[in-house]
Amino acid sequence: MSPVVKPPPNVIVPRHVFIAGVTGYVGTRLAETLIQRGHTVAGLVRTGSEKRVPPGCQPIFGNALDSNSFSDKVAGYDTFVQLVGVAHPSPAKAQQFRDIDLKSCQESVRAAVSNGIQHFVYVSVAHPAPAMKAYIAVRTLCENLITASGLNATILRPWYVLGPGHYWPYLLKPGYWLARKIPAWRAGAERLGLVTLRQMIGALQSAVESPASGVQIVEVPEIAGRN
């Protein structure tokens, strides 16, 4: 595991960032933010999806489930962000979690290790949560895989990200407020709290710009602390 040199406070060190899942809900917005902040960004895309890549982001064609299709194009990047996963997770998608979420993480880690990536960023999920056992089980396997790889890594654990097309959980906010008032429920309410898309992008941006030494876990309260 190579050491990470921390920049002085308030100094943005330009990063060369490779994003798997760049055309997704979070990936597109993260790429836009990083480009605006002066970072070099490339994104893994399937043929035909390149129009969804934001301006300034270099499309890299390949299959997220097969590192042989893109690993040689990761050379020269220092940060790898893994965002590939099944959209709108639900208990009914257990097999998809293994076929897509787990497989893509395995291939991303393989490519990152092969190319000496300095920092690996992964979006996992808050746990435990009984209703989503299969999803959490796969994300936990991915976390363990990253840890065992020897990569410096930041693992973020949101529960639900509020944003365009993802607003229904606002209906749960009164319940969260009540749970935080009850001591026995408070820890669970905070661990499985809601975060906004802006907070999630802010946490990912921070992870890219302040790379971890070893493996750092970022839970919901830290993500929610991002404005």
Q: Summed up, what is this model?
A:
This protein is 37% helix and 17% strand.
Q: What's the structural blueprint in terms of helices and strands?
A:
Layout: E1 16-20, H1 27-36, E2 40-45, E3 58-61, E4 79-82, H2 94-114, E5 119-123, H3 133-149, E6 153-156, E7 160-162, H4 173-181, H5 183-191, E8 194-196, H6 197-209, E9 215-218, H7 220-224
Parallel strand pairs: 1-2, 1-4, 2-3, 4-5, 5-6, 6-9, 7-8
Helix pairs in contact: 2-3, 4-5
Describe the structure.
The protein is an alpha/beta fold. The chain has a single domain, classed as NAD(P)-binding Rossmann-like Domain (Rossmann fold, 3-Layer(aba) Sandwich). It has helices spanning 27-36, 94-114, 133-149, 173-181, 183-191, 197-209, 220-224; strands spanning 16-20, 40-45, 58-61, 79-82, 119-123, 153-156, 160-162, 194-196, 215-218. A seven-stranded parallel beta sheet has the order 3-2-1-4-5-6-9, with helices on both faces. Helix 1 links the parallel strand 1 and strand 2. Helix 2 (94-114) packs parallel to helix 3 and helix 4 packs across helix 5 (183-191). The protein is globular, with a radius of gyration of 17 Å.
List keywords for this structure.
single chain; 227 residues; Rossmann fold; seven-stranded parallel sheet; two-stranded parallel sheet; 9 strands
Number of helical segments with 4 or more residues: 7
Radius of gyration: 17 Å
Oligomer: single chain
Q: What general form does the structure show? A: globular
Total count of strands: 9
Q: Could you give a short account of the major beta sheet?
A: 7 strands, parallel
Mean of the pLDDT scores? Answer: 86
| Strand order within the widest beta sheet | 3-2-1-4-5-6-9
Q: What would the CATH topology be?
A: Rossmann fold
Number of domains: 1
Say which CATH homologous superfamily is assigned: NAD(P)-binding Rossmann-like Domain
Q: Tell me the fraction of residues in β-strands, as a range.
A: 15-25%
**Helix-strand string:** EHEEEHEHEEHHEHEH
What low-confidence regions span 5 or more consecutive residues with pLDDT below 50? 174-179
**How much helicity do the residues have?**
25-40%
CATH architecture: 3-Layer(aba) Sandwich
Computed structural class: alpha/beta
> Gap between N and C termini, in Å?
32 Å
CATH class descriptor: Alpha Beta
